[in-house]
Amino acid sequence: MVVRAVLSAFAVAAALGAVGAGISRREPALAAVAVIVAFVWGVVAGLFLLRALPSLPPTTALDRFLVILLPVALAIEAEAAAHWLDGFWLTVERGCVALVAVPVLLHGSVWMEGGGPAAVILAAALFFWASWEGITGEVRASDDRVVAGVTVLALVVAGLSIAMAGWLKGGLVALPLAGALAGALAVEWAGSRAEGGSLGRDGGGPAPSGLPGLTAAGLVALFGLVVVGRCFGRLGSAAALLILLVPLLAVVPAAIGRGLPASAAGRLLQSASYRIFLAVVPLVIVLWGAKADFDTRLGRLLGAAPAAARHHAVSPRPVSPRPELQAAPAFEFGRDRLGGEVPPVERGDVWNVGGKQAAENDPPARCEPAAELVGMRPEHRGDDVGEDEVVGWLDGKLGEGG
Amino acid sequence: MPRLPALFAIVLALAAGSLRAADDYDYDLVHSSVGFKARFLDISWIQGRFNDVSGKFSLDRQDPSKSTFSLTIKADSVDTANAARDEHLRQPDYFDTKQFPTIEFRSTAVKAIPDGYEVTGNFTMHGVTKPVTIKLVGGKEIEAMGKKRVGFGTELKLKRSDFNFDKGQIGNIGDEAIILIDCAGQRD
């Protein structure tokens, strides 16, 4: 289902982008808007097939990302592609969106209790605005496709990392985004090759291109996804930061290289392969870390670990702050039971104490309930026994056993 | 003459105090538990509990309809005896505890039944509030360990899909969940 959703997102974005660009061939601005619209429909198609369309009204961070943040950002980029507003107002719009992006994503959550961490929100807004404005400006000036390409990769890695950390839906949503972005970029690239320049270019100087808009779409998608993955899933801070740095690693060296006088170093900094390498290294590190985390945590739940570590079927016991009680084999019996070494227990029996010893040494045909094992006085069995009394008995028993 | 309003207020306060028949109990976390269970692959039950619960009961034995019950569960305190699974349950695929930190019940109507109370109220989980009616068995007050104590038990069946849980995660773990509440209240 996931592969089908990603391929569909790619195909829908590419097909609609091609049709739109073809229809508005003589209107470069409209062609540029068309590929952005195609990206939107590609995302919708992918999410539909994943059964991950956002709910309305949006109640979760992921819903707000897909229903509010991403569409607003795309509308701004469509304005930019169509030249409906001049650069100053676009900068202001992007700044406003960047400023409210994190509060919108975190709205109503524990993160915003007491107004939220203002300094962090402001720092995130500045980073978001600077990278959005700076990178799209650089792409507009240079027609550089590398940054959009690595953003697609970053989206995939962000999604896989979030999913492997335990938020499956949050992670999977990234994949149609990446697929649709790749589809729209493919059409934009094909169009630019056919026209000998940017999509819709009619010769005679720079013409509107869908590339900056698509790059911005990828950046906004990446930022939103990483923020919700970090704040609502278990994406680590280091991984989040590395993923967000990837587009910058692809664009900053090129900008530096262009500023240098013609030299081998300048050419290296501008070369696509070097910048892709720079961007891929942190992504590989993040993915490796996510896989290692998955193997040690969720992988065990999902069957990658020995049967003994899978879903327990025994009633849980509150974790005691006392180490000697934590060491008591509260769940060993159930674990062994899943492993098939111990006969099934009767529902209602208490196996908090003594199960481990019995299972390890000599699987008994009948196990005594905990009350007897700890030497609880018969007159107290069945009473409404307070925790203090039980802890007292356990203390005595553990003390006797050394 | 100026003393009259003050006197009137005192009399009114005393009258209100004497008319008040409800007993207020605090939730006794030590002797209470809120657990849950759900089907795993439809072959067994996965059980868990919430370790951080608070609440209040106000029992009016003369006029049970004036009684109130409230319970607040910190969703973050979910405990299924497996740390990895607990972290998974806290994420948005399940409880989404950063977005929806509490699970709450607030009674709206109470009536006495032979072995306890039938309580209708609003149950809020995962950002969705739905009316539910539960049968609270118990209610007998005893005095023990220096406090007056009362206890209730109930089971509440609900469907996760009714509370906007991710439908993609309903499969391995069944849609229906049973909330098991055994709570004690105490007052001086």
Could you characterize the architecture of this molecule?
The complex is a heterodimer of chains A (402) and B (188). The two termini of chain A are 56 Å apart. Chain A has 2 domains: 2-197 and 208-246, no CATH class; 307-401, no CATH class. In chain A, 69% of the residues lie in helices and 0% in strands. Chain A is built from 18 helices and no strands. Chain B has 188 residues and is mainly beta. Chain B has a single domain (21-187), classed as Lipid/polyisoprenoid-binding, YceI-like (Lipocalin, Beta Barrel). Chain B has an 8-stranded antiparallel barrel. The chains are: A mainly alpha (402), B mainly beta (188). Chains A and B meet through helix 7 and helix 13 of A and strand 3 and helix 2 of B.
Keywords:
A: 402 residues, mainly alpha, 2 domains, 18 helices, 0% strand, globular, disordered C terminus, B: 188 residues, mainly beta, Lipocalin, 8-stranded antiparallel β-barrel, 2 helices, 13% helix
In short:
The complex is a heterodimer of chains A (402) and B (188). Chain A is mostly helical and 402 residues long. Chain A has helices at 2-23, 28-50, 61-82, 87-106, 118-142, 146-164, 168-172, 174-195, 211-231, 237-259, 264-270, 272-296, 298-301, 323-326, 332-339, 355-361, 370-373, 387-401.
